[in-house]
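User: I want to check something. If I give you two sequences, will you return the structure for each one separately, not as a complex?

Assistant: Yes, each is folded on its own. Here is the first sequence with its structure:
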Amino acid sequence: MGPPGAGKGTQADRFARSRQVPRISTGDVLRQARGQDAELDRQARATMDAGRLVDDDLVIGIVRKRLAEPDVKVGFVLDGFPRTLNQAEALDHLLDDRQPLVVVDIEVPEETLLERLRTRRVCAKCGTPATAVLLVCSACGGPLVPRSDDDLRVVQERLKVYERESAPIVEFYRRRPSFRSVDGDQLQESVAADISSAVASVLGAR
């Protein structure tokens, strides 16, 4: 967990690859679904580009379907879910017979978030995230463009939405023994090491 720009996607991908488990990004799955449904694409694009959250029922349905697939039985990493209390409560029901849910909150100061989001880019060809330091996508060589939801006005709205809708989930999980928080305002390698240690402290070194 963490606000927009905290590095959730980067760290989720890194952790999933290190553990050889699937990374489930609701944003990626939703974008794929949008590409297959013109009406869904229109509605979701308008919502996401305005910095608002997509409807709970739609997102919960996407996650429920993904968690029913066989490759998640050995474990998985959730990126971008849950983002509301309704989604968090639904996730508890989806995970009734699984191992404990480890929740890692990545904490980053707002001024750092704004700077990161201002310079963030995404590949126009394959969707791989990057920063303004790069000229082309490191994965496919495609052109890098600003994300439509990283406009300063939209970014500020997204942070307000996070504080209003998503931040309360941190309090929802904080009382659980499987909750951990890490400092996200440091080098990616240090954040990754802290996340690994946090997960190991709950599940044990595996």
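And separately, the second sequence with its own structure:
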Amino acid sequence: MPIPTLTTARAVLRPFVHDDLAELVGIHAEESFWWYPLRGAMSTEETAGFLARTIERYETDGFGIEAVIDRVTGTMIGCAGLAVPHFLPEVLPAVEVGWRLSGPYRGRGLATEIGQAAVDWGFTSGGLTRLVSIYEPENLASGKVMEHLGFTPFLTTTDPGRGDAIIVTELTREAWERRPPYSTV
């Protein structure tokens, strides 16, 4: 199944390409972008590795995080979408919805908007019956987005790579079908 391009009112989610590296390096250099879970920025080399793994996982997993593009400016403002959470084997098999936005684009409802687009695609064209979303308890903003999207706590555990507490939330297709439609109003 090809990785989709999704369009929302304010953003486009599209598959990453290798030519995205320069723009992605700038975003990944923001300390706050990767604060959870890295507590700091990514180097150019780390970003190149991230991009290569992401593109490779489109083929191996059938899912992968996508570039988020501002529809007005055409600027890359983050990444979001569906991906297999390989770092947390205890929840596999699973597909996770996630998002990361550059500082100026946070706090404006964009994470909910793009998260909803990914969730909707996952439960319709993606054919999924369950999605997870994962956050650190201190990351209240992400937890709120998950709540707005209809996710509920499923498991509290520890990130095996970093030792930090994490909360795994879930949303089933049945619960998604019962939710009122998402509104940006």
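Because they were folded independently, the notes below concern the second chain alone. The chain has one domain: 6-177. The helical segments are 21-28, 35-38, 44-60, 110-123, 140-148, 173-178.
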